[in-house]
Design the sequence.
């Protein structure tokens, strides 16, 4: 089933394509996609906002297809769950990912490892061609490191230590990360819902 992805994030797109590779969803991009302003309440609302916006844009272009969108974030216990839904806007709307990671490490400078627990959260929204909407989420627990480690992944991956592997998400190969990530867990949840819906 041809499914357009509501993202302009190349790292997220590549990860979603890998995760959904053997699924019924054939992920495509819509080069004219115009990103919408996300809210500050929750991941599922933002994922639905993006998916619905892309479906309207496709409709205006004469394309009828399913769409999928992800909203994800990093929640840190010592920061009361921040940056959370504002993860991509942490350190300012126009900050680079390097600047966001540096700002996060600075804010956590004096926080001991015992309080550096964190989790990645992903919400996926799938809007089918007939307008039906399916939403799913997933999360994975870890710790925030004291420095960046690893060259893979994107976003906060170099700071997120995944305890079962003893490595950050950026130190894991893409294949290993995609077997255990928050986005993988959300995808499995979504595909289970889709199989029942079908």
Sequence:
């Amino acid at each position: 089933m041809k499914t357009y992805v509501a993202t302009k994030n190349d790292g997220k797109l590549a990860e979603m394509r890998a995760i959904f590779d053997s699924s019924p969803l054939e992920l495509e991009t819509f080069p004219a996609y115009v990103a919408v302003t996300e809210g500050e309440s929750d991941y599922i609302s933002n994922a639905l906002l993006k998916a619905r916006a892309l479906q309207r844009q496709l409709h205006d272009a004469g394309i009828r297809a399913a769409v999928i969108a992800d909203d994800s974030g990093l929640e840190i216990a010592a920061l009361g769950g921040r940056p959370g839904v504002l993860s991509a806007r942490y350190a300012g709307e126009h900050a680079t990912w390097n600047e966001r990671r540096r700002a996060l490490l600075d804010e956590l400078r004096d926080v001991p490892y015992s309080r550096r627990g964190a989790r990645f959260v992903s919400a996926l929204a799938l809007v089918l061609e007939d307008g039906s909407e399916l939403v799913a989420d997933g999360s994975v627990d870890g710790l925030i490191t004291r420095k960046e480690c690893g060259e893979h992944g994107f976003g906060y991956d170099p700071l997120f230590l995944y305890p079962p592997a003893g490595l950050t998400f950026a130190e894991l190969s893409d294949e290993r990360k995609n077997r255990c990530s928050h986005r993988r867990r959300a995808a499995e949840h979504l595909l289970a819902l889709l199989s029942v819906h079908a």
About this structure: The radius of gyration is 17 Å. Residues 5 and 68 are 5 Å apart (CA to CA). Strands lie at 2-5, 26-28, 66-76, 83-84, 117-127, 133-144, 160-162, 167-168. The chain has a mean pLDDT of 94.
